[in-house]
Design brief:
- Pathway: Carbohydrate degradation; glycolysis; D-glyceraldehyde 3-phosphate and glycerone phosphate from D-glucose: step 3/4.
- Its EC number is 2.7.1.11.
- The longest helix is centred in the middle third of the chain and has 22 residues.
- With 322 residues, the protein is α/β, with parallel strands linked by helices.
- The protein has a seven-stranded mixed sheet with strand order 3-2-1-4-5-10-11, sandwiched between helices. The protein has a four-stranded parallel sheet with strand order 7-8-6-9, with helices on both faces.
- It starts with a strand and ends with a helix.
- It contains eleven helices and eleven strands.
- Helix 1 runs parallel beside helix 10 and helix 5 crosses helix 6.
- It binds 6-O-phosphono-beta-D-fructofuranose.
């Protein structure tokens, strides 16, 4: 292999730059040229790529987002789009590709693998919903951002005897919400994996009020049937019973925009290096993730189309600690 490409795809995640840096520096150390592909699969189709040397990725490890840019690309979901992408790789003499991204992006990686192109994926998403890795690049930083918001909302909540319904990202996965609830000392948590009854949540709030708490926090995953907006609608009809005045805060993309913390920088560096090792070893069509404290590769066919399961013991714990 003489030349490889690297791209970031889907929602950006803090730590993606550290992963790009690791791919470039370990790739160059193996004697390869490394090309950065701009704006994910969209840029790949359009042939937007630039050579990256070791100095070009200096000073990016501490930066959030992705210096290569990212995109969600509808055209790449079509076979015609993917053929254009492969043509673009061939025209630029790129013999291997590293795709840094989450669930949707790795479905694309698998498609390229099925079409015979040497490709590996790196597990990166704030959702931590990927099978084949214990943890994904970005989730630790996103979690800390959510925690900072929760801590602040507790302060203002206490001043006003308010309850906050705090919605966090995560698509159909409740990991971020669950961890934020435990670490943030929330009264309860609502996640997509567990059918929730709004009346049960109302009872938890009433109980907290009766215990004399000055505020109450409910962390809600955006993918739950009763997301924060729907819960608030339900509670509106029961405000007089609940005690706390309720407010909704949707954290949204704020969670994605932070500078990566130490854990994400280190994880991303290890997985980025693991990706070039996998390409060198001819291990194509795999997700490079982190399993049991080690870099681990899992065939993408075992990864795509699935959502990682939640540890139900942690859900029980979150509900016990109110
Ligand atoms: O997959 C990462 C994520 O941030 C999800 O948590 C969220 O649902 C989605 O991306 C938002 O997507 P977009 O940035 O396209 O609005």
């Amino acid at each position: 292999m003489k030349r490889i490409g690297v791209l970031t795809s889907g929602g950006d995640a803090p730590g993606m730059n550290a992963a790009i840096r690791a791919v470039v520096r370990t790739g160059v150390a193996k004697g390869w040229e490394v090309y950065g592909i701009r704006e994910g699969y969209k840029g790949l189709i359009e042939g937007k790529m630039i050579p990256l040397g070791v100095r070009d990725v200096g000073g990016i490890i501490q930066r959030g987002g992705t210096v290569l840019g990212s995109a969600r690309c509808e055209e790449f979901k079509t076979e015609g789009g993917r053929l254009k992408a492969i043509r673009s790789l061939n025209e630029n003499s790129i013999e291997g590709l590293v795709v840094i991204g989450g669930n949707g992006s790795q479905t694309g990686t698998f498609k390229l693998h099925e079409m015979g192109f040497p490709v590996v994926g790196v597990a990166s998403t704030i959702d931590n919903d990927l099978v084949g890795t214990d943890i994904t690049i970005g989730v630790d930083t996103a979690l800390n951002i959510a925690l900072e918001a929760i801590d602040r909302l507790k302060v203002t909540g206490s001043s006003h005897q308010r309850g906050f319904l705090i919605e966090v990202m995560g698509r159909k996965c409740g990991y971020l919400a669950l961890m934020a609830a435990i670490a943030g000392g929330a009264e309860t948590v609502v996640i997509p994996e567990v059918e929730s009854d709004p009346e049960e949540i109302a009872q938890i709030l009433i109980h907290a009020y009766e215990k004399g708490k000055s505020h109450a926090i409910v962390v809600v995953a955006e993918g739950a049937t009763y997301n924060a907006t729907r819960l608030a609608e339900y509670f509106k009809q029961h405000e007089d019973r609940i005690g706390f005045a309720l407010r909704v805060t949707i954290l949204g993309h704020v969670q994605r925009g932070g500078a990566p913390g130490a854990s994400d920088r280190i994880l991303a560096s290890r997985l980025g290096a693991g990706a070039t090792d996998a390409l060198e070893a001819g291990k194509y069509g795999v997700l490079v993730g982190w399993v049991n404290g080690k870099v681990h590769t899992t065939p993408l066919e075992e990864v795509v189309g699935k959502t990682k399961e939640i540890d139900m013991e942690l859900f029980e714990l979150a509900r016990k600690l109110d």
